[in-house]
Amino acid sequence: LKVILPAEIKPLIILDSESCCIKRYYNLGNVSVTTKPLKKIWKTHKDYNRSNTIIVDDTPTTYANNYGNALPIAKYNGSNDDNELILLLDKLKSRLEMNDVRLRTK
């Protein structure tokens, strides 16, 4: 993150794989789905809420419960010409100016 983010963009909380919730759907053939529930952040960090929290991930099921707060990115392809993080930087900068970072609400 230090490499791609300028000083004005400071991620304060990062939900990694250890912070995820695993849900198992037996009616779908015992399928496991990983989610990153932003409500975990909102409960413990009162300065954060739906209007000022962004989730960045390459798996739609991860942010299914918070799709309005999501910035979807493509999966890293391992090549030197992968520019997804550069594109992400532009998207993050544009949301810095917004009162509400959500692009879609229910």
Structure, described:
Helices cover 18% and strands 15% of the residues. The protein is of the alpha+beta class and 106 residues long. 7% of the residues are buried. It has 2 helices and 4 strands, in the order ββαββα. The radius of gyration is 15 Å and the shape is globular.
Features:
single chain; 106 residues; two-stranded parallel sheet; 18% helix
SSE inventory with pairings:
Elements: E1 21-25, E2 31-35, H1 39-44, E3 55-57, E4 70-72, H2 84-96
Parallel strand pairs: 3-4
Antiparallel strand pairs: 1-2
The largest sheet, given as strand count, sense and whether it forms a barrel, is:
2 strands, antiparallel
Q: Mean pLDDT score, rounded?
A: 78
> Measured on Cα atoms, how large is the radius of gyration?
15 Å
SSE order, as H and E? Answer: EEHEEH
| Class inferred from helices and paired strands | alpha+beta
